[in-house]
Amino acid sequence: MTTFQKTADSYRQGARTLPGRYYTSPEILAEEAERIGRRHWHCVGRVEDIARPGDYFVKEIAGESLIVVRDQSGVPRAFYNVCRHRGTRLCEEAEGQLSETIQCPYHAWTYRLDGQLIGAPHMNEVEGFDKRKFPLHQAALSDWEGFLFVCLAEDSEPLEQALAPLAGRFARFMLPALRRGHRIDYVVRANWKLVFQNYSECLHCPVIHPELSTVLPYTSGANDLVEGRFLGGYMTITEPNASVTISGRACAAPFPGLSADERRRAYYYTIFPNLMLSLHPDYVVYYQVWPQEPGRTLVRSEWLFHPDAAKAPDFHPEGAVEFWDVTNRQDWHICALSYAGISSHAYTPGPYSPRESMPAAWDRAYLAVMGRETP
How far apart are CA 81 and CA 75, in angstroms? Predict the structure, then answer.
């Protein structure tokens, strides 16, 4: 049984924000790439993004370009975007459809979609050359609740084990069955950690989000994951609003597995290190968070709906899209202002309030992953 607790119940006295170097230092960002980017499972998209054999997209993790593709046997795979000949990048387009092979644009080394080298011009003239010894380098790829995850570590922990605390937690939202209805990519002029910290609290909502505050009072709800790499809980949708949309009207029928109480709630979770998951009675929004520079973060936002929703005459996804696009832009703006202030020599760590117990918990999880007990 899920146990929820109020924000103040998980507050630790003396919790403070991180020192400025954690947001502004290129050296910290490089260390994050090593300790987080190359060791942890990252959400890279949805299973539907590679629905057919040959479908692919390219994603960068910790400076490494990966090709995520479904091979001709239907097996999803992730390959380093590096030719085994002279290292040339294989795929330039962000996404697309391959026939049956991946061919290097430099010297035409050619690979099957399972990564095996099948063509290497003139290498038959090289004594002892064996194509079987030069497959594309692979990264670990797995799926969870319809999301695709990649891990660069050679000895990666199985994804099911890494996400064990979340097992079954979101089953009633039918995540594997949902389909993308809209996508927006945002460039946030702030450090990636500020994006997570901002998402993790709503103390700022009455000031920053007038639209949101009328639907989701910031003092409502409670959290059920309050420590560790997975954090979050719910907020209560106020009457007469039926969902979290610009009009307050539901944009689709509620998910059938929800209880009466759950149809009045919106759930928000951070899944370390790059996924933020927002679950509403009639739709889901998720965010991939990708550090680019100390003060630049790419956030991909996607709205997911039940496949039957579009068949209904009262399906209005634009209400959910508009609501969160407005809210997201408000968040990204304040994150940019926060980063600008933190970049000042005058900045020193400030105290968290009980209403900020979740970002404080997120900081603790981050420091643990970085191998630090204290900032």
Answer: 18
